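Incident log, structure service

09:12 report received: a user says their structure output differs between two submissions of the same chain.
09:20 pulled the input from the user's history:
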Amino acid sequence: MKSIMSIVAVFLFCTIQANAQKEIPNITVKKLNGTSVTMDEITSEKGVKIISFWATWCVPCINELDAINEVYEDWIDETDVELIAIATDDARTKKRIKPLINGKGWEYKILLDENQDLQRALNITVIPHVVVIKDGKIVWRHTGYQPGAENQLYDVVKKNAN
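09:34 re-ran on a clean worker, output below:
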């Protein structure tokens, strides 16, 4: 009986968490050039967007963005998706962002969540964390990365791009 109650409790927690946040909060983040932009400005356009929370010190984050980078042009051609990589680096590590991006050749829109305000508002405690948005609404969230997880992400993008 206790195990059934535990399963029910976990299910309810996951359901509540999945439904807790349906929109991206309108928090200000920064572009690499230092200018500010609000999340409303970024997510107001129609269509599907992938928001990837990452940091320069996070190896799984970099592996995920590298894996997506290999197929990103095809994803754009097929679904018109846009990936926005939001770095959560703090003052100590943010100087590594531009050199890393330049070295990787990523073509993503890169933004900075310097004080982790957006990360906290979305209750993100672990990175990498990917959020898929369609028409300004959150339709899918995923934490962590294992090789091949980009295929599941692409399936979600394709399903929502129609």
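09:41 both user submissions now match this output. Likely a transient worker issue. Closing.
09:42 reviewer note: The CA atoms of residues 131 and 139 lie 8 Å apart. The longest strand covers residues 48-54.
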